[in-house]
Amino acid sequence: MLYKTAQNRFGLYVLLALLFFLWPFFGLCIALLTVQIKDFKYYVVPFFFLLGYSITFKLTEADSYSYGVQFLEIRELSFIDFFKSSYLKGETTDLYKTFLYAILSCFTKSPKFLFGVVALVYGYLFIKCVEFFIGNTKKEFIHYYMLLVFTLVIPFVNLNGFRFWTASFYFVYALFLFSKKKDSKYLLLVASTVFIHFSFVLPVIFILVFYFVGKKPKIYLVFFIITLLINNFISVFIDIGSSFLSNIFLDKLNNYTISNYASSVIEGKGEVSKVFLILNNYQIWYMFITVFITRLNFLRYEFNEEINNLFCILILMFSFINIFGDLPSMHRFNSIVMLLTLNYMMRVFTLNRTTLMKNLNYLALPTILVSTYQAFDLSVDLFSSEIVTGTLFSILTEKSYLIY
């Protein structure tokens, strides 16, 4: 760290405040190199607002463009009319987006400001996950390496599809808290993810199983093996869900399970490369193998409640991937499970600093190489170059490609 005294620390923060006005991106780089993780959020979260604000909307096929158009179309609707048309009768399945649109439309008609606010929430949840992940561990190279992988699992460019990825960080952070202390209030946090993105109703069911069944790893392992062998579980779960859900919520659940959904939601619109498929499979098997190797290697150890809870949750989430992974857009949950896996590996490594654990952690890097490359490739067209080269004023005054 550059500062050793309170005076130096104050001087550093004054410098970062000035850089936020003069060259925000350079200030971010300085903050990365100098600021302690516990204070990093004070620069990163405001920078996320600028990142969201810098979306250009020139990619008409991007989710951000369709969100911007939707936001512009609600100018003449009252809150009640908008809620009825978009949620109860329309295709919108998420209360978060509905209320966000309705509230912000009272103050602004700018889709850029909408994405600035969206990015602010996204960035805050991202930082909370990072803070929990790194915790109070002794900071060594391996910890910073794991932190780098953790932050790149869900690339910043995913802000483009903010609904699912905001829900992802919210879900992961809620699960972090829930695994540390199996409390009903944290279970409610996990369950409330469905109000941000309704597709999370499916993994929430698995977490409810863990809450009521308890720490039964042998039962979960048997279930996991069954899901590996049998892929036709979807209809069973939908039939079970239909007996508990009202017609409104059942219709929305069906939106995530019918084959027609593929053409309207799938994010990867081009032909997926063989390299991507190979690394995607590598990620899945990396999660499976490392978690099981870790558990088998340390069977003689008495792990704490958090690690035991995480192991059971991971086995259930692995089963979830086996059952629903082939559904349209459900592959996105792989990234969420990867974050949970890295957290599990970090917690075990903290207690058992063996060469095996260190090597398993190093093997995590290939799981994020393709997504990271694609993120930076897409960011060229998705975000304005001003976010890298501009001042605060130039970022906030740049015009959008979206037609108002």
Automatic annotation (TrEMBL):
Pfam families the UniProt entry points to: EpsG (PF14897)
Keyword Transmembrane helix: yes
Keywords: Membrane, Transmembrane, Transmembrane helix
Transmembrane segments: 12-35, 113-134, 141-157, 186-213, 219-238, 284-301, 307-325
InterPro entries hit by this protein: EpsG-like
Name of the protein in its database record: EpsG family protein
Organism: Lutibacter oricola
